[in-house]
Amino acid sequence: MLQKLTPDDWIRAGLKALARDGFTALKADQIAKTLAVSRGSFYWHFADVAAFERAVMRRWRDVMAEAIIRDLDSLTPASARLPRLLRLAFDGDAALEIAMRAWAASDPRARAVVRSVDKRRLTYLERMLRGGGVAAQNAAARAHILYWTYLGFALSAKPVTGRARDRLIEELAELGRAPAARGAG
Question: What digits encode the pLDDT tens for the residues 142-157?
Fold first, then answer.
């Protein structure tokens, strides 16, 4: 019996191809081969490669921003959110982040999606910091420092593990604490 693929199957395969081989791998033929189906299956679900690419970009946004934010927002107490986010950021595989940003360097559609995700992530970080008692005048700067640290880490593709990672996370978590909680005035 043949398995009937859904658009979601194609999109998941597209994200894997993007992370593994970059945006040039987002071709109907290549992904059909990976899924062991005919190219016709692709065109049953997507009008063309551009429609597929848009779906992959939307899924990247959901996986890399919206799903993480939903997960964080479900945590109580709220003070557990920044440490959880830092663990996700510094324990995760950055291949998909790197691949999407490489795509954005040459494709205006991908660039727009990356910019919207950057804005969403920064806005969320700032809101999280303010909710944790960081003064409004400091929250935006600290959000940027945290985010740029993540991007630098992700794009460097150098793993940080063990005690070094734990120490990095501890230091970055300090940026999320209000002055009174940090012992500073």
Answer: 999 999 999 999 999 8
